[in-house]
Amino acid sequence: MSHLFPELPYAYDSLEPYLDAKTMEVHYSKHHRTYYDKFIAAIAGSDLEAARLEEIFANVSQLSPAVRNNGGGYYNHILYWNCMAPNGGGQPSGQLAQAITQTFGSFSEFQEQFAQAAVNTFGSGFVWLIVKDGQLEIVSTPNQDNPLMDVASTQGEPILALDVWEHAYYISYQNRRPEYIDAWWNVVNWSAIEDNYRQAIA
């Protein structure tokens, strides 16, 4: 089987005080695990078992809602976890930093636009920094959709993901999504995102 459930790349309490251990434990071991288990069940016995996620998402409009929703939840969370780190925060460097400045004017302006996209995402969903035709763009998707899917209004290669479902932050922040977003910047793993960017433009 080509689709495996990855280990969380750090301990549940590693992102405190910004993301609490209980939220991380429930989010990873319950929510993410359930998406994975349901995705595996949805593709069992089909050719999709051997297909890459990118291939599945490219034609997801032709597949069942179970594959779309749970496959998205499986993939989206992997990127979300890997976009954070215990010693995160700060600013990107190198090519990514240059591209952000070129596209948005400054890193602070990028943060403002990204945060506003997250605050203004209605209900549940994700906010992304993507590479589309070699250029950076901020987009949001509802529920567990992502920019690799053919149903996305804007498609591209995701390099940064922010989960704005309430279960990602409710224990610590309740309905105060802007506070969660402000805290999240302190754990962003810019080194990993720079790697994602380099791969996306290669």
Topology summary:
Elements: H1 21-43, H2 53-58, H3 65-82, H4 94-104, H5 107-119, E1 125-132, E2 135-142, E3 157-163, H6 170-173, H7 177-184, H8 190-201
Antiparallel strand pairs: 1-2, 1-3
Structure description:
The chain starts with 20 loop residues before the first helix and ends with a helix. Strands 2-1-3 form a three-stranded antiparallel sheet. The protein is built from eight helices and three strands. The chain has 202 residues and is mainly α. Helix 1 (21-43) packs antiparallel against helix 3 and helix 4 packs across helix 5.
What key phrases describe this protein's structure?
single chain, 202 residues, mainly alpha, 3-stranded antiparallel sheet, 8 helices, 3 strands
Q: What is the total tally of β strands?
A: 3
Please give the order of strands in the largest beta sheet.
2-1-3
Question: Could you tell me the strand content as a percent range?
Answer: 5-15%
Shape: globular
- Helix/strand structural class: mainly alpha
Q: Give me the number of helical elements.
A: 8
Series of secondary-structure elements, N-terminal to C-terminal: HHHHHEEEHHH
Poorly predicted runs: none
Sheet of most strands: 3 strands, antiparallel
Tell me the helix content.
40-55%
- Rg, Å, rounded: 16 Å
Mean pLDDT reading: 97
Q: End-to-end distance, in Å? A: 28 Å
Function: Destroys radicals which are normally produced within the cells and which are toxic to biological systems.
Pfam families: Sod_Fe_C, Sod_Fe_N
Domain Manganese/iron superoxide dismutase C-terminal: 92-195
Protein name: Superoxide dismutase
